[in-house]
Structures are given as structure tokens and as C-alpha cells.
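Researcher: Structure prediction, please.
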Amino acid sequence: MTHGIGEVVALLAAGLAAGTINTVVGSGTLITFPTLLAFGYSPVLANVTNTVGLVPGVISGVHGYRKELTGQRSRLLLLGSASVLGGLTGAILLLTLPAGAFKAIVPALIVVALALVVAQPALARWVALRQAARGGRGEAGRAYASGGPILWALVFGTGVYGGYFGAAQGVILIGLLGIAFTDTLQRLNAAKNVLAALVNGVAAVIFIFSTHIAWGAAGLIAAGSVLGGQLGARIGRKLPPAALRGVIVCVGVVALVRLLA
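Model: Predicted structure follows.
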């Protein structure tokens, strides 16, 4: 498929924004997915292309937060297994369910994702208060624990959602980790980035070997998202959160209108 200059610039910019937002908050899909729809890609093709394109950016964000990952190896090995299995399940569901089912389900998923994005500040405040009440960094044993089978199951469920569509899975993960662990929010965000990378990564592998990918668009999103991942890790914390959420909500609403038209 030939890409005009406008499409190239738009996809690069969308990838940059999504990479930044995914690293800081999560929900960058609500930027890139509607952008692909706007250029005429079918919903399923846009979804799989978007997943493949955002993987490098998520990995870039993980690298940017590598210092905050110190000491989280055992936690991430256990929860990472839930993310991998969940992402695999979600990707298989996307490929086996009829394309019409995805088009019917996604508007509801976008509404859920937008609600999570809007609720994110209240969720973040609640998690921060919980962390402070339990001692900030928390006892070493509790801070580095695995979280138990209930958390594993919830992370698995989030992975299924992420492998199927993925918008705002980072917001869900931050909420779950904040409830389970007494650890700093930056360390929880680093863990969130790893789990999201595993979900997106395994789903991308399934898509690459099982279905058609718009590689030109995926490459443009990937290039932008890699830069965005580093931007999010370095200066994303200083970006106005309200502005980021406003952009996400506006683009998400545009996607809803397009899908329902």
C-alpha cells in the first residue's frame, strides 16, 4: 500500500504520542487505532497492525524504566507468565472470532477504555494514598511478594483483554499492582510496562505468523513509538496529565463515531 506524505506524518506522530502515553499512563492504542481507521484500514487489520507497531515502543519504555525494575525479577517472572498466557488467549480470540464480532465488541471496549482513562487520576490518587498508609515503600517482604493467585488471575484476564484489543490495559495493571503491593508508583509503573510488553509481544508474534499485517503502517508506528517510549520514560512525567487524557478522550470519541457510523 502506498503511503502519502500526510499519512506518513500522521502515523509517525500517532506512534510518537502512543509510545509516550503508553510509558506514562497506558492507552496509546486510543491514538494509533483511530488513526489507522481514518486512513481506511479495516478494524481487525488496524488492530493487528497497531499491536505489531507498538511493541518496539513498549520495549523502549521498559528500557527507559530499567532502574526501577531492580529487585522485581521474581514478581515479574510469575506475573509475566499470566501476561503471556493472557496475551496468547486474547490474540487467538481475535483471530478465531468473526471479524464482525470484533467490530461489534470494540465500541464497548473503547467506552470502557475511555472510562478508565478519565478515572485514572482518581485511581492514581487512591493507589498513592494506599501506598502512603501502608508505609510508602513498604516492608521488603510485602513489596517484593508475588501477589498470590487472585492477582495472577486478574493479570491473566487483563492480558486476554490486551491481546484482543489492549487500549488502557496499562491503567488496569497499575490499579491491580497498586492494590497488591506496597511499592513506589514509579516501580509499579516499570512493572506495568514489562507486563504490557509481554502481552503485546506475544500477541504480535501470533499475528505476524497468522494474519495479514500492513507492514508499512506498522513500521511508521514503530518508529514513532520507539522515540515516544524514551520520551515517556525521560520527560513524560512532566507532561500535563490533563492534556494527555484530553487528547486520548477526543481521539477515542472519534474512533467510536467512525466505528458506529
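Model: DSSP finds eleven helices and no strands in the chain.
Researcher: Thanks, that helps.
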